[in-house]
Design brief:
Number of strands: 0
Oligomer: single chain
Radius of gyration: 16 Å
Strand content: under 5%
Shape: elongated
């Protein structure tokens, strides 16, 4: 696998993960009651705790996207 293929791979990984993050954030922002209701019924966690859990999830996922997708992609772009 050469440098251009690796750069392309990390670019696609970044795009896919950013799309998943955007979808999850959109569901929390625009359909909070729907998302909280479904998650509470599935997991049994009280609805009052879900907003904190969602924000914790989104913040950790954003950090993971930056560390494992964005930074390597930028490094490969600079190296190439």
């Amino acid at each position: 696998m050469d440098l251009s293929q690796l750069t392309s791979l990390f670019g696609w990984m970044l795009l896919i993960n950013a799309g998943i993050y955007t979808f999850a954030a959109g569901m929390i922002i625009f359909a909070r009651d729907f998302a909280v209701g479904i998650e509470a019924r599935i997991t049994g966690v009280p609805e009052a705790e879900w907003p904190k859990l969602f924000m914790d999830y989104l913040s950790r996922y954003k950090i993971a996207i930056i560390m494992f997708n964005l930074v390597p992609w930028l490094a490969l772009l600079i190296a190439g």
